[in-house]
Structures are given as structure tokens and as C-alpha cells.
Amino acid sequence: MQRQVSYNKEALLKSLILLGFSVFLFWLVKSNNIIYYINPRFAGLTKLAAVLIFLMFLVQAGNFYLQTHSDHRHAHAGRGRSKLVFLPFVITLLMAFLLPNQALDAGMAQNKGMDLGSRTAVSVQSGQAGANPGNATSAETNNSDANSRGYTEQDQNPVQTKIDELRQASLIQVSEENFTLVNSEVYTYPDKYAGKEITMLGFVVKDQKFQAEQFGLVRYVITCCSADALPAGFLCEYTSAPDFNEGDWLNIRGTIELGKYEGETAPVIKVASISAAQQPENPYIYPVYF
């Protein structure tokens, strides 16, 4: 029976889709736009996924040329299969390339469940200290026991060491590295931080619950990907607060005080000085594990 070469258009479509996803993932990592979607510590896994998808593309591309019998019953097998099943993949790929890569905006904060009146849902960098009042006390006890056995400070809980530094400092400079630790500590033990000065970079959010001179200064905290992004920050008070627009990036310096929010005691930053700022190249906060 005579054999002939035919072209498998379905295999061609599959291979092009796989190539598109592989190229897109490589481009995300290379351009650093990956930060808008996942925690950068997973960039290596993204590269691995791109490589695996590219290998799948090579396998699928090899199926484009098929040597078949001339029997028409088999030569065109599957030709009637609907190509609509590939439409969702094509649309997703087009959206990935055509839609702009940008950070979550301030308008999403309310939808994400922002609450600046109580301790924000942001965990501390370690599971041993700062997660709740009892844990911190336990960590302090453990450190005392470690000292009694002659251990050095480096042998102690590194998170507790950071907490001790915060509690002893007269000025708390909030950075990307200590953001979640400061947030957790101040909301858990506001009385220990009342009266301390603090500096912070963040964007403005406003809420109907806020008074005229109040605004929230927050950052999005991402543990895994943008889907789990949580807005975290502090309630601020400043006489010119109405002059700021939601989404404005600001550098502030002020003093932590015990204030009221919806009838409950909450830490509030009394802003002393403020300046406009540019959105950082990477606007998100990623929990640091000491």
C-alpha cells in the first residue's frame, strides 16, 4: 500500500500554543515582569516550567509530519474534531502578551480585605516569635535559657533578636526586609511602640470609615503570588490628608501613638513630615525568612 506524508494541523496548533507559553514565561523572568505575578523566589521554578513546556513543544512539533497509508479512512482521521477546544488557550496567550504588566492598584485594597484598625493578616517571618503574644514570651524565655547555658546571641532565635532591636530603637525605619515584622509587632504590642518615631514608604488608601485627616499608608504583601496579595500598613493622621489622592506614593516620618479606630484602640502614626515619592521598581513586599 502506498505511503504518503501528510500534515497534522492539530499538532501544529498545539506546538505553537506550547511555544507561546514557553516564550512568555522566559520573557517574564528575563524582563523581571515576573514580580507582578509571583514571589521572585519562585523565578527558578518558572524557568524550569518554561524549559519543560519548550520540550513539550519539540515533541509536539515532531508530530506535525505524519507518514500515513493512502487509505482515506485513516489519512484524515480526526479531521472533523472541533478546534474550538484550543480557543481558551489561544485567548489566554493573546491576553498574556497584549495586556500590560502592572502592579495592583490602591483600588484593590478594599476588595482584598484591608483593615487598619486591628492586627493585619500578615505573618511574621518565622514561626517561633511574634506570631502571637504567647510565642514572643516563650521566645524571650528561650533566649534567657540560652544565655544561662552560655550560648552566644547568634545561637538565639534570630527573629527575637530583630524584635529586641525594634523595641530598643527610638526610630523604626520600615524597609522591604522588616516590613512584615514591624507590622506584626506594632499591631500585637502597640503599647510597647507608642512614642517611637517611624519612617515608611507606601501608597495612600482612603476609606469612608476614616476621618477627614486620616489615610492609610500600605504596601501589598505577597507570600506566593499576586492572588494572595494582602494590603498591610498603618493608619496615619495628618492635617493635609485631604490633599492626597488614593494611590499616591509617600515617604512619611511620624510618631506611633495609641488612637481609636471604630471605637477600638489601634496604633496610629501621627505624621510630622511627608514627601511625595515614586512607586518603587518592585512595589510589593515579600516576607523575609531570617
Automatic annotation (TrEMBL):
Q: Give the transmembrane region(s).
A: 12-29, 49-66, 86-104
Which stretches of sequence are listed as region Disordered? 126-156
Q: Which residues form the DUF1980 domain?
A: 13-114, 153-287
User: Does the keyword section mention Transmembrane helix?
Assistant: yes
Per UniProt, the keywords (alphabetical) are: Membrane, Transmembrane, Transmembrane helix
Recorded hits in PANTHER family, A to Z, give: UPF0703 PROTEIN YCGQ
Annotated protein name in UniProt: Putative membrane protein
State the organism of origin: Desulfotruncus arcticus DSM 17038
UniProt lineage: Bacteria, Bacillati, Bacillota, Clostridia, Eubacteriales
